[in-house]
Design a protein that fits this description.
The chain has five helices and five strands. The chain has helices at 20-23, 28-38, 52-62, 81-89, 128-138; strands spanning 2-8, 42-48, 68-72, 94-98, 120-123. Strands 2-1-3-4-5 form a five-stranded parallel sheet, with helices on both faces.
Length: 139
Amino acid sequence: MKKIIIINGPNLNLLGTREPSVYGTQSFEEVLTQWQKAYPNVSLSYFQSNCEGELISKLHEVGFHYDGVILNAGAYTHTSIALADAIKAIQTPVVEVHISNTFARESFRHHSYLSSVAKGVIVGFGMKSYELALLSLID
């Protein structure tokens, strides 16, 4: 059984209520439950934090014995060299995801410090971005 964790960064705890026109109306927990049922041969866990250091610590914790990390670092994507360094420091492959098409938004969202150290990047497919990342890790 593959062990995969989804790690969400700042403000993603508000999915379902935060800017529904951009992020949709489902909470992350609702969608996670659907995926756990749809992929019973995957041990799928979840972690969310609004704090950069907690995200880094979680990457360190899982980065040597999980089969994959799906990471939506939120706004830290565009600011955090420390998260990029954490991804480089671990062995577990990390797929960077974004719910919205960051390239269709404000110009500061067009740059990611994480993309160059991630296994891949999936952007702009709503909550389906996570499932596409999951499929890439279990394939």
